[in-house]
Amino acid sequence: MKAWKVVGLAGLVGVAATGVVIARGERKRRAYTPEEVRDRLKTRVKEAANA
Fold first, then answer.
1. What does the alpha-carbon distance between residue 24 and residue 10 come to, in Å, rounded to a whole number?
2. Angle at Cα 40 formed by Cα 48 and Cα 17, nearest 5°?
3. Residues 6, 2, 15: CA angle, nearest 5 degrees
4. Rg of the Cα trace of the chain?
5. Residue range 16-40: average pLDDT?
6. Residue 32 near residue 40 (C-beta atoms within 8 A)
């Protein structure tokens, strides 16, 4: 029975860690201004066209 508790706790920790990673990425993404987003997209399009 103890093994199942450990497995369940490990799964819960994994889900929490995934949520933290997603939240960090979201905060970083939202920090861009619209002009920065446009510039980055234009740069990526040019790079893709040249590849």
1. 21
2. 100
3. 20
4. 20
5. 89
6. yes
CA distance 9 to 16: 11
- pLDDT value for 2: 85
Let me know: does 4 contact 12? Beta carbons within 8 Å: no
Q: Of 35 and 1, which is predicted with more confidence?
A: 35
| Residue 12, token pair as written in the block | 């819960």
Residue 21 amino acid letter: V
How far is residue 36's CA from residue 40's CA, in Å, rounded to a whole number?
6
Q: What is the pLDDT of residue 35?
A: 93
Predicted local distance difference test score (pLDDT) of residue 48: 93
Read off the amino acid at residue 35. E
CA 27, distance to chain mean position in Å, is 9
